[in-house]
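Hi everyone, sorry if this is the wrong subforum. Our group has a chain we'd like a structural model of before ordering constructs, and none of us has done structure prediction before. Sequence below.
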Amino acid sequence: MAHAYTPGLKVTEKLLVQKHRILPLKGEVIVNVGDHVSPEDVVARTHLPGNVVPLNVANKLGIPPEDMAEVMVIKEGEAIKEGEAIAIKRAFIKWFSSSCNATIDGTLESISSVTGQVLQRGEPIPVEVKAYLKGKVVEVIPDEGVVVSCMASFIQGIFGIGGETFGTLQMAVPDNTTVLEANLISDDMAGKVIVGGSLVTADAINKAIKVGVRGIVVGGFDDKDLRDFLGYDIGVAITGSEEIGVTLVVTEGFGQINMALKTFELLKEHEGQMVCINGATQIRAGVIRPEVVIPKEDQEVSESEKDASPVEGLTTGSPVRVIRHPYFGRLGKVSDLPAPLHQLESESKARILEVEFEDGHKAIVPRANVETIESK
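Answer:
Right subforum, don't worry. Here is the predicted structure as tokens:
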């Protein structure tokens, strides 16, 4: 049978999902292997060093830097409080003495007799890593973090913004072709992850934020609305750190594109269940896809599922999405995978495949112009 590999998105009813929850610096892991966790549970914590704020003491007191040791009343490593004197230039008459006060709370990190400056280190910044998934801790990495695992329905998107969140899944539209507009968003959607159809408007996103919706999963989004909404253009760097009040996962692409029927039906089937989503996206090396994870409660992972081999690649019958003109966004399945190189209209040669679209129409498409929709 003809066979080829091409990258693609996963849309599957059942998948073993494992997430490494790692601290940015070594710290304390507060759960154990076998513990059951929820998305909001803290699994590890640490403290980041506070910000450094320089202070030119010599300049403020009008002394040469080499006299720093004579005026300092706080030593290196000692605690400081904002407004507290850390250096005093004493005069014969008390009222003519002058002082230099700390500008932050923290510690005095260093004193320089060369520059006349001191470095103030702010209070340590607490950092907590949460489980993100509802699942089970299957591995503890000492002082660093854990691996959380669960069986779940899993959907990868094309693009997203906003970070990790969770909520009850609610359908906001009747079908995968309906545009999610502001009038379809109601107050009872607060704290939920809602599903749209072919497009979500900027007005709908703004209303969702106002209502308190935690996440939106939709087929398409207008790139002009994206820039107006964020206030800047998205580059090739990773998204996911935007603090906009809602997480957006786009499953198909930019513009008005119907959400794939399989994706929409999978989401609809799990309406009312808890869903975990993450809009983080990176399209350069080290690709990161936005995702929708619907944990399956009380389902243990069998040995066969642990050892299951990944999807092998593109074969006849594989579901695909065309990702370039002139069939951009259309869904179909591979009907043929000819081995020889094929000359394209541009007169270049490339490996191609024949795809049969949902309406029965067939077309020849370069293999580089499609992505698989991996499912199980």
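For your construct planning: The two ends are 20 Å apart (CA to CA). The first helix runs from residue 57 to 61.
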